[in-house]
Amino acid sequence: MNRLSRVFAGAAAVVLVAAAAACGTSDDSGSSSESEAGFTPPKLEALKQLGKPEGALNVLAWAGYAEDGSNDPKVDWVSPYEKATGCQVNVKVFGTSDEAVTLMKTGQYDVVSASGDASLRLIAGGDVEPVNTDLVPNYADIFPFLKNQKWNSVNGVSYGVPHGWGANLLMYNTDAVKPAPTSWSSVFEDNAATKGKVTAYDSPIYIADAALYLMNTKPDLGIKNPYALDDKQFAAAVDLLKKQKLNVGEYWSDYLKEVSAFKSGDSVIGTSWQVIANVAKSEGAKIEAVLPEEGSTGWSDTWMVGAKSEHKTCAYKWLDHIVSPKANAQVAEYFGESPANPKACEFTADKKHCDTYHAGDAEYAKKIWYWSTPITQCLDGRTDVKCKDYSAWTQAWTSIKG
């Protein structure tokens, strides 16, 4: 499998459930409260001090996050870690956040690269434990706006180390779509020039994109968080997506197929990622990708330590290694996202990588509503109503697609 195909297998899955389960945008920073999290975490303690490395580490990761050179000899940040620590790494790649949660419950894995919907479930289930960030020297360098957020902390307690993040963008064919779009209205409202050639991400979590648009254009609905939708708000988002379906030519879940569709002209506008835009443009597609004026949804991933890990010193050394400047640069560039460590920007092969992915741009990050798993306890703080949970979103997505 080539690099793009293999990385896509993981990256697409990130988006599918992904999540960095923030309950709001990045400007809503600070540690999450118990009411915001929607649960009381089990009483687990963080490691007090490092011991002697145990000689082994079982890693559970998205594809492209823990490369050891076996897929591409030039792509290897696992071997340097093994050499430095003596911890021999065994990597298990998962395809969805649901799969990651199930595998972590076995207690067989020491660390996991968790997206937000997985991270909060893992915390609530007692499958991961708080992280003593004092034992992770490189943690000090991580961008402040990624720390102590609602997808990696509960009640002011850190449960992991931020790894990388990205936004969902509006990609369009510059020949077919004029003037250049600046709003998600270009995919949610009728347009004769794009009818039948709109593309949208094939996942229930895409309902949040519709909710975000309505939050900005239909203030009477009272949407404050695109992942916290009561019956009326949810119905409005679903209705908007059913209307949109009349203009959708394809729901995409395959990185390469979306690139192909934009190259052929079958798709001329829709949701995408920066890395997809880069590939499409490098292959001759006349496209651009923008962050619309309403903002967007997006993801942020966190490395967490298994509560049942028998290799916790090796686990902590991995956390420190994976966000070290060189390793974090390698992962971010290979996967196609912004690194968490600003010092990583010095080590990317493409010296424009951090500019392209808006690394360290807190104002840009503020415009992103990181993906979150909806729960009945409204994530916007309301207590007088119940919100639709993810199972309801899944059922609705089936009806939307027909």
CATH superfamily annotation of the largest domain? Periplasmic binding protein-like II
CATH architecture of the largest domain: 3-Layer(aba) Sandwich
Q: How many discrete structural domains?
A: 2
Record field, number of beta strands:
14
In terms of DSSP E residues, the strand content is: 15-25%
Decide which structural class fits the backbone: alpha/beta
Mean pLDDT: 89
Unreliable stretches: 1-35
Distance between the termini: 32 Å
**How big is the Rg?**
20 Å
The shape, in one word, is globular
Under CATH, the topology of the largest domain can be stated as D-Maltodextrin-Binding Protein, domain 2
Total of DSSP H or I helical runs spanning 4+ residues: 15
Assembly category: single chain
Largest sheet: 12 strands, mixed
Helix content: 25-40%
- Helix and strand string, N-terminal first? HHEHEHEHEEEEHEHHEHEHEEHHEHHEH
User: At the first level of CATH, what is the class of the largest domain?
Assistant: Alpha Beta
